[in-house]
Amino acid sequence: MESIESILNDDFIGKTVTIHGWVYRIRSSGRITFIIIRDSTDIVQCVASSSLGERYNDISSLTVESSLEVTGQVSKDERAVTGYEIKISDFKIYQRNEFFPITKDKSDEFLLDNRHLWLRSREFTSILKIRSTVFKAFADFFYNNGYYQVQGPMMVSTATEGGATLFKLKFFDDDVYLTQSSQFYLETMIFSLEKVFTIAPSFRAEKSRTRRHLSEYWHAEGEAAWLHNDDMMNVEEKMIEYIVSEVLNKNEKDLKLINRDISKLERIKAPFPRIKYRDLINKSREFGMNLKYGDDLGADEEYNIMIHYEKPLFVTNYPEELKTFYHLPDPENPGEILCHDLLAPEGYGEIIGGGERIWRLDELLERMKKAGLPEEDYYWYIDLRRYGSVPHSGFGLGLDRLVNWICNLNNIRDAIPYPRTVRRIKP
Ligand code: 4AD
Ligand code: MG
């Protein structure tokens, strides 16, 4: 059995091959039928003619997405979609379909309800291949840099990113939450492993429907002892450069299929520009906005900024009030914290949130008190500041957002096979 991609070259001209897959398109004109067959690798035009005798009707009456195996001789044909054609001499039908429900002009809702079938589209196939490269490249980058892959729990008793977006569920007789971030658990592991990363789901009860929020998303997080905020950004920009270069190397065909402008991705080379939040606010008129110090940057603001950038942009030193309690205050700039968001270009906005963590006990307790957090719930997080505490930094990257940007999609739900949003929990 050959893969379709492997036979699409001149070496196979005149050879007889067997391929299997699904009917992608079928067009019959009486005594001759063109069937485009797809497998995971590509599509190829196959032709059946009445030379198949009595069996011709079986194959010429197939419908889209029926599964089959065909054997035939390969020839070059400029008119065929992928440049070659297979003249069918034998075939086996695995399943003859009823009418396939996905046709042109279906509504977004219909396609979302039928996601399990819509996934077979060529665009989605390419997006999923790119996604696969992104996940592997993220892990490879950190393995290559001496990090260990670890796992934290998904059912937790503490909030990392504030109570507003916590999903609560019953756990025997207790209430538990679905994790918003594995950060605190990664922090516990740097005291033995020093450099760790994880790829895990995170959950956010985001009530608003936006183009960049999922209720369940894939979170790639890293944490390292001894690194400061700037050091962490140095790691992250190389990581993003590596992931994008891997996609360019491995998924050129897929990027073309989804009409991605490859030249825009080729520009993604470290270092990335860095700007302090306060300088960005001062420049906000240049981006057509009138922001005040203390305003948060949401999707719209980030869009207005990032349509002006060709590379991702680090925004550092947010005011303390805009971020969660664990960020380290900047001793040189009172009221500011040593944190960073990485905003993706072409208007995409935030893909990473990270920074340096408070590592001294009294400072942490003070910030927790200010945030109104009960010490007893966070006893284990506080303990890390009691026994051999060290400076450390980390980050969280939304992998679905990264895929969304790399593929230049309109909506994050097209970057993940089964999106979970405030209004969607099936299929
Ligand atoms: O900025 P966030 O909330 O930061 C944290 O969770 C830190 N504890 C991470 C860390 O330092 N280890 O989330 C990190 C990233 C965001 O930049 C974004 O890419 C993604 O997670 N993200 C979401 N992606 C999809 N849907 C959502 N609802 C998301 N919320 C955050
Ligand atoms: Mg954030």
UniProtKB/TrEMBL annotation:
- The Enzyme Commission number assigned here is 6.1.1.22
Q: What class of enzyme is it?
A: ligase
Query: What InterPro entries has UniProt attached to this entry?
Result: Aa-tRNA-synt_II, aa-tRNA-synth_II, aa-tRNA-synth_II/BPL/LPL, Asn-tRNA-ligase, Asp/Asn-tRNA-synth_IIb, NA-bd_OB-fold, NA-bd_OB_tRNA
Answer yes or no on keyword ATP-binding. yes
What's one GO MF term for it?
A: ATP binding
GO biological process: one example = asparaginyl-tRNA aminoacylation
Q: Does the keyword Transmembrane apply?
A: no
Q: Which residues form a coiled coil?
A: none
**Domain of life, per lineage:** Archaea
Ordered alphabetically, the record's keywords are: Aminoacyl-tRNA synthetase, ATP-binding, Ligase, Nucleotide-binding, Protein biosynthesis
Residue ranges constituting the Aminoacyl-transfer RNA synthetases class-II family profile domain according to the UniProt record: 128-427
Extract the Pfam families matched here. tRNA-synt_2, tRNA_anti-codon
Q: Which PANTHER family match?
A: ASPARAGINE--TRNA LIGASE, MITOCHONDRIAL-RELATED (PTHR22594:SF34), ASPARTYL/LYSYL-TRNA SYNTHETASE (PTHR22594)
**What family does this chain come from, according to its entry?**
Belongs to the class-II aminoacyl-tRNA synthetase family.
The protein depicted here goes by the name Asparagine--tRNA ligase
